[in-house]
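User: Quick sanity check before I run a bigger batch. Here is a single chain. Can you write out its predicted 3D structure?
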Amino acid sequence: MYIYVHTLLDESLRKQLRSALPTEHHLYFRSEKDSDNELVEVFNRADMMLGNPPLEWFQSPPANLQFWQLDSAGFDKYQGLELNARVANMGDWFARPCAETIVGGILALYRGVDVLTLLRQRKEWIGSGLRPYLGTLYRQKVIVLGSGTIGTAVRDILEGFRCRVLTLARTSPSADLHSREEFLSELSDTDLVVNTLPGTVHHFVDREVLTTMRQGSVYANVGRGSTTDERALIEVLQSGHLSGAVLDVTEIEPLPVESELWSLPNVVLTQHTGGGQVKEDDGKVELFLHNFQKLQRDHLLDNEVDLRRGY
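Assistant: Done. Predicted structure follows.
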C-alpha cells in the first residue's frame, strides 16, 4: 500500500504516522524541495492520500486510489471530480478557530484595537480622543450567512454577547431565514452580517446586499472570498455607507499589493488565518489515522463527502 502525504508535516508527525501504520505500507512525505514532476509521479502511484494536491493533477487521477483524506473542511475546487476512492474532509475541526478569528476581528474593529496597534507602532497617544468612535458587540442584531459548522460556532459565540442572531440557509430546518428575499427584508435594522458561505455561492453578497445593509453596519467574511463582490464592497466602504469590514478571505489570495483593501482604515484583514491553531496539523494526522482504521474495518468514515455532489 502506497500512501502519499501531500500535507507538509514536521518530523514528529511523520514519526507518528510511521509508527501507527503497518510496516508494509510505504509512506512518501512531500517536502518543499520536491519538484512538481517528482510529486506527480508519487501522486499517481498513491493508494491512499492525505492533503490537498493541485486540482490539475487530477486530470489523470491515481488509478489505485482507495482513500483520500483532505486536510481542509472546504473542497470547492474539487467539486465534480469523479473518483472511485472514498473521500473525507476535516469536518468541524476548523470551525471554532474560524469563528473565534472572525469574532475577534469584529471586536478589534468595534473596540479600536486595530487603530491602537497602529498608534503603538507610531508611539502616538490619543487616549480619550478615540473613545467616541468605539462600538460594542453586546446585544447587536446579527445575521449569519450559512448554518454549517462555522456558522453554528459563530452563532454560539455571539449569543454569549447576548446578540440577537438570525441564520440564513436555504434548506436547513434550524435556520431562521431561507431565502434571499427574507434576508434582504431584515437588513434595514441589522447591525452586523457574518458570511460563512461556501465558494459554491458566487457573489451572493453583491451590491444589492451591501447597499441594503443599514447605514453604519458592519460586514464580516470568514466563508470564501468568491462569495462577495469585492469591488462593490470597496466602493460601499469608501462611501461611508458601511462603518467597516472584517475579512478573513478575499477574492484573490494573497491579496494583491494594489488592492484598496490594504489602505482602507475601516477594514480588518486576518489573511485567511481563520482555521489556524497550534495543533492544526496534529488534527489532520489524527483524523487520517482514525479513518484509516475505519477503512480497514469497512466502517463508515468520519466526515465522508461526495465530491460529485459537493457535500
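The radius of gyration is 22 Å.

User: Great, the batch can go ahead then.
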